[in-house]
């Protein structure tokens, strides 16, 4: 079977974001499988004809998917969150036209791949794709992340100037991430406990999401408890491993997620997770996460509960999470993706 993957995200700003990482790790895992040849769009010495074309990305408001397709086509749609919170994701006339184009282009795809059962349901509801065309294929954590401990963690913590005791958030600052409530939660936690926020968008900028963060920091008077780390990028594996490993807890406060990769990444680094009880987070976290509500008070209460665990309780939760995370691998993702290709043909 010959498959051409559109690797546009690897040559854009998406390269170090979720879509770029997905494109890279999936492509590499597919190349390890037998009975399949992988070709990347835009490279020389490719066959003109392949069996399947796969677009590993889908922009809701920009025409990334061609309407006319000469080859059996699969597209990955990670989530439709901007359609669920439309008031907070204004798109304008161009975006509205883009969405109309994308919906039309979806009518002629052979298969849609998505990250969770929750996203499958949303795609059916908001994009009108028939259920039988949609295939759920779970993702996996970044395989280069790993737990760091002992002297190596002490050295890395000094190099990165990490506080002694901190909770962690990794990701973007979009409305659905619910960051103002996580910031407000610090009001109800010990002042010596810091919050580290990792992600390239944790830097002053004239957008509503950053303004909401700044306003909440001021309202809650917790500026001294927050450390923003936009310099630690998702392809800086050693630094990211250290930041995960040193945290007393990873917190995912989101109102909604299509998957929730940082939850698995924290588990991979031996860090217990507190997550909001909604959307795909329940699917991905299962019994290996301490679930909570998404208000500041609820988040703070669950963080305190985790911090009060005995050493035995904490070790047991970390073991359970490690065992759970190991079930998600990129080779499994690739094998299940190949099964979708086979069904298309």
Describe this structure in words.
This protein is α/β, with parallel strands linked by helices and 345 residues long. It folds into two domains: 2-140 and 329-344, Rossmann fold, CATH 3.40.50.2000; 150-325, 3-Layer(aba) Sandwich (Rossmann fold). 41% of the residues lie in helices and 14% in strands. The chain is built from 13 helices and twelve strands. It has a six-stranded parallel β-sheet with strand order 2-1-3-4-5-6, sandwiched between helices. Helix 9 (261-268) links the parallel strand 10 and strand 11 (273-276). Helix 6 packs across helix 11 and helix 9 crosses helix 12. The termini are close together. The model has no long low-confidence stretch (mean pLDDT 95).
Please provide a brief summary of the model:
Helices cover 41% and strands 14% of the residues.
How are the SSEs ordered, and which strands pair?
Elements: E1 2-5, H1 18-31, E2 37-40, E3 52-55, E4 72-76, H2 81-84, H3 92-106, E5 111-114, H4 117-127, E6 134-136, H5 150-160, E7 166-170, H6 179-185, E8 194-198, H7 208-220, E9 226-229, H8 237-246, E10 249-252, H9 261-268, E11 273-276, H10 279-285, E12 290-292, H11 296-307, H12 311-325, H13 330-344
Parallel strand pairs: 1-2, 1-3, 3-4, 4-5, 5-6, 7-8, 7-10, 8-9, 10-11, 11-12
Highlighted features:
345 residues, Rossmann fold, 2 domains, six-stranded parallel beta sheet, 12 strands, 41% helix
């Amino acid at each position: 079977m010959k498959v051409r993957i559109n690797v546009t995200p690897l040559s854009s700003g998406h390269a170090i974001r979720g879509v770029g990482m997905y494109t890279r790790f999936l492509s590499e895992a597919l190349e390890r499988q037998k009975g399949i040849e992988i070709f990347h769009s835009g490279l020389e010495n490719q066959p003109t004809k392949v069996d399947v074309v796969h677009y590993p990305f889908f922009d809701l408001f920009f025409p990334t998917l061609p309407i006319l397709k000469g080859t059996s086509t699969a597209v990955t749609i990670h989530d439709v969150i901007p359609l669920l919170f439309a008031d907070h994701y204004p798109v304008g006339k161009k975006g509205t036209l883009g969405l109309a184009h994308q919906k039309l282009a979806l009518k002629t795809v052979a298969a849609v791949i998505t990250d969770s059962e929750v996203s499958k349901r949303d795609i059916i509801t908001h994009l009108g794709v028939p259920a039988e065309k949609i295939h759920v294929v779970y993702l996996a954590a970044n395989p280069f992340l790993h737990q760091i401990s002992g002297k190596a963690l002490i050295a890395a913590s000094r190099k990165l100037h990490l506080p002694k005791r901190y909770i962690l958030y990794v990701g973007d600052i979009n409305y659905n991430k619910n960051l103002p409530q996580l910031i407000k939660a610090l009001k109800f936690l010990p002042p010596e406990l810091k919050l580290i926020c990792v992600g390239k968008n944790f830097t002053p900028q004239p957008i509503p999401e950053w303004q909401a963060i700044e306003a909440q920091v001021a309202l809650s008077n917790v500026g001294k408890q927050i450390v923003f780390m936009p310099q630690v990028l998702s392809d800086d594996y050693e630094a990211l491993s250290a930041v995960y490993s040193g945290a007393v807890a990873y917190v995912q406060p989101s109102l909604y997620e299509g998957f929730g990769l940082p939850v698995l990444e924290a588990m991979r680094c031996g860090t217990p997770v507190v997550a909001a009880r909604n959307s795909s987070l329940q699917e991905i976290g299962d019994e290996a996460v301490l679930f909570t509500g998404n208000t500041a008070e609820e988040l703070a209460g669950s963080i305190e509960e985790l911090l009060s665990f005995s050493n035995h309780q904490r070790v047991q939760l970390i073991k359970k999470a490690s065992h759970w995370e190991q079930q998600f691998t990129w080779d499994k993702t690739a094998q299940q993706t190949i099964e979708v290709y086979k069904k298309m043909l």
